[in-house]
Specification:
Two copies of one chain form a homodimer. Helices cover 33% and strands 20% of the residues of chain A. Chain A is an alpha+beta fold. Chains A and B meet through helix 2, strand 4 and helix 3 of A and helix 2, strand 4 and helix 3 of B.
Amino acid sequence: MTAYDPDNIFAKILRGELPSETVYEDDKTRVIMDIMPRVDGHCLVLPKAPSRNILDIEAADLSACMATVQRMAIAAKKAFEADGVTVQHFVEAAGGQVVFHTHWHVLPRFAGISLKAHTGEVAPAETVRAAADRLRAALSED
Amino acid sequence: MTAYDPDNIFAKILRGELPSETVYEDDKTRVIMDIMPRVDGHCLVLPKAPSRNILDIEAADLSACMATVQRMAIAAKKAFEADGVTVQHFVEAAGGQVVFHTHWHVLPRFAGISLKAHTGEVAPAETVRAAADRLRAALSED
């Protein structure tokens, strides 16, 4: 397996070298908004410790990520009054991975509405911030 | 949230009332082949305890599932000499869920090859068994 590259964009976000819309943080994990959302409210759960994906992540980091994925799935459903949620993890480029720091996609879903394709188009900052605010509000009600 | 229905097909498989091609089992989890594979080697990680999806699963079961997902991702990559892996969890029908017992899809992926659509077509038993044998062999080499 290819080694972890500490200059990937999520590592830079975690070090504060790049901005992000952070909606949740604990000892081991951080949740940021996807700036190329496939649906309004699309967020990403990251372990703070370096790992490339599920093939090399340590067990404690994986468990911590999943507790946060669960928390965000519940928050996303509530925040957007969603009918469902889709959770995805992509391993290596062939598996759909674009940034090589472990992350889990959490996507609110609505009956009859497909996810937008991953076009690489960056959403307006105010759209992403508004979705982040809804997630933060849902999290704060717990 | 809708209550857990103990007559869903994965619950029946876990109780031995329906057959399955099981490739791995431990105290808290079991891995069966998807009989409608979107790629050769498509398997499903199930918690043995009842839960509908990530919204209601208990923390210990979720952690156990993810340890098994990690094990299966590593095995799938090795067994099929895959370039990557995709991991999916679907929550409620709008999120893509078809069977309402928590499960994680683990799909070996190959550069340039898309997943087949979920057509509902059942694969020949010998095809599924051959893929299961490859996964078992990869697991036994650990």
